[in-house]
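Record 1 of the preview.
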Amino acid sequence: MSKFNKKEDNRTTNRSGFPAYKMTMKEQLVTETLTTMFGEPKFYGSTDDSIISHAIIMAGSDPEFLCKLACYARNVGNMRSVSHALTAVIARHAREYTRTAVRNVVVRPDDLPEIMSCYKSLFGKPFPNALKREAAEMIMSFDEYSLAKYNKKSGAIKLRDILRITHPAPKTQEESDLLRRLMDDRLQIPYTWETELSEKGNRKEVWDALISSGKVGYMAMLRNLSNMISCGTDISPVLERLSDPEEVRRSRQLPFRFFSAYKMLDQRGLLSPELHRALEAALRCSLDNMEHIPGRTLIAVDCSGSMNTKVSRDSVICCCEIGTLFGAMASHICEDATVCFFDCTKYSSFNNSKGYKIARFGRHDSILDITARYSAAGGGTEMSLPMAYALREDPTRDIKPFDRVIYFSDSECNTFGRIYGMHTVMELVEKYRNKYNPKLWVHGVDLLGYGTQQFTGPGFNLIAGWSDTVLPFIMLAEKGIGTLVKTIQEYKL
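->
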């Protein structure tokens, strides 16, 4: 009998204490990274310490992957704070990649104080020479407008502190004068919507002038729609910019930002048909170029209580809304999609004893309206419910089996045994494969990065994040072209 050469057991327990499967180190770090507004609380506890500890381990085992993950998070996943944290770890534990990380993660001047502050809070002083050298070079790459715009007066480390710490060497008198003005806090006040509103107030003529100037960025327009409308501003040019595909692409907004604007306007009674159309058009821009998903797809959206976790303390958006939004988006690129919204309690938001609600949406149904209607969260996380529904459906000649199931969830299953007395949802997947479709794919989109999963083995694809870039990984995996981890491994620096 073999005592040592045994098949590896990847079973574990999740944060709720229920059965789950382990992730590889890279999978865990990727899912943690792409699902966090670093420093914000989560329902089952923060993942910040886990991210740092896993990043330190990765810095020793595969520092290039860690560097690529930091750069991918910032530039593809549009995750800012966590990319700062990973860069700080790189500066400490993978110093040979400091230059690459800093030059890819620092997109605007205030990235530098954030990285330096994170490093100080994690590792204390002194700052590594490589980090100081790169910070000095990067601060010299910004013009006066950018430095003034992001020259925050608060914070433990300010832009002028970066000068004291790094001692950049100006190459011209002009650069020397610019650094002196930054040090003395004499930068020319930039013309931005923040400075104009601060000086002149939230008035129609101020917004009219700002909009005409072209100085209002895309995110600023999105966040200030209610301010513009409430003071009587003509927002026709704003609507044109919001729905322009090229503007949307350049803005790199996370999809939930459009729903956040929709939700705020609706709550304040300011959502006009024109605004609705512009926000819907902006949200759909990313779907236009996505590959359509053939066959039958079951989309499973977790509406349990733990999905009520807010994206951040100040956000109006919770993870259930992100999951519902993605579910609605996914249904629009599927040839034949059935959407299952699930939680485990008979007193669920859907008021039925099954714990799930089945819906089908047309291509012309509003993604924003679907999200608002179906994203109420409550009850336990019973991820077996969608698979139980699929098994009950009993495909016949007139109903083809599902080709895939896509889960949008935090994967914190905590009510096992209600359906078939099984230990993990994977058992129901295997039952469906044996009975109806041996080639069934399972795609798990992790929305909170707690570090465990409910599926394992061939035919399972792990995805994570809040960016619209998660959806293309469905067909990439099924074609054998790539997965999320593989894409990061092949990311060009």
